[in-house]
Amino acid sequence: MRHTALFDRVGQEDAPIATFESEYPQGYVFAEHFHERDQLIYACHGVMTVTTKQGTWVVPAQRAAWIPARTPHSVRVSRTMSLRTLYLKPRLARTLPRMCCVVNVSPLLKELILHACAFRTLRRDNPAQSHLISVILDLMQQVESIPLQIPTPADERAKRVAQLLASERADDRSIDEICKSAGASRRTIERCFSEETAMSLGKWRQQLRLLQALQLLADGEKITHVAVCAGYSAPSAFVSAFKRTLGTTPGRYFAKS
Q1: End-to-end CA distance of the chain
Q2: Residues 6+ positions from 45 with CB-CB distance below 8 Å
Q3: According to the 3-state scheme, what is the secondary structure of 104-144?
Q4: What is the CB neighbour count within 10 angstroms for residue 134?
Q5: Which residues pair with 6 in a beta bridge?
Q6: Cα–Cα distance between 181 and 34 in angstroms, integer?
Q7: pLDDT of the residue at 3
Q8: Which domains, from first to last, does the chain contain?
Q9: CA angle 122, 126, 130 (to 5 degrees)
């Protein structure tokens, strides 16, 4: 299969796990690229947005993006970011899905990732490193994914609606008007979203607003301001939507970071 994305050779050392650590300024963008290895990209601080043809994932601090090998993706840094990356031989972490996701990182796994990045590679012929590899893989089998994804519809008209909604926070136009401007009826667009994203258009828009709000919260904005920017009628409505999706309030969620 031929990729138009750039092949990035970082992490290609001949070892079960290779590592990489880096710091990036706000606004930095990684152009679309792919790797021959699976990646676990841990955000020490900051927030990043990972985009593939299948969708968009927002990754706040103290969480990680899982990106399977040969998945073309781009990354945008929303604020100054510190990353620690593990490059794993494909399918070394057998229980993780063969699709992108955002995962919670336990305190122990966090410390092991930071420790692993003190080495360029982890090899089985080094007893201490071999043990570290085994513990990391054991903990990765236990990670849980969190719903921080916006799937992208394939239909060009539905895709235009998605782009219009993503480009305008708190857009005052009705859904009917937005669909009409994209060249289709609301009924047609609703069907496309339902079939191609497994979400209704209304649910998709709600998820979009939540992830946009998550980016603002990660930047330190107040909940009152975030609720307005994300199109919620009141801060309490935003907090309720956040809690329904992530199981806790914004304050508690970011306190863990």
Answers
A1: 39
A2: 61, 80, 81, 82, 257
A3: ECCHHHHHHHHHHCCCCEECCCCHHHHHHHHHHHHHHCCCC
A4: 12
A5: 33
A6: 34
A7: 46
A8: 6-146 (2.60.120.810), 149-255 (1.10.10.60)
A9: 60
103-135 pLDDT, tens per residue? 999 999 999 999 999 999 999 999 999 999 999
DSSP string, 19-88: EEEEEE-TT-EEEEEE-SSEEEEEEEES-EEEEETTEEEEE-TTEEEEE-TT--EEEEESS-EEEEEEEE
* CA dihedral angle for residue 30, residue 17, residue 64, residue 91, rounded to 10 degrees: 100
Q: What pTM, to 2 d.p., does this model score? A: 0.82
pLDDT tens profile 83-109: 999 999 998 998 899 999 999 999 999
Give the whole-angstrom CA distance, residue 62 versus residue 48.
11
Evaluate whether 171 touches 230 at the Cβ level (below 8 Å): no
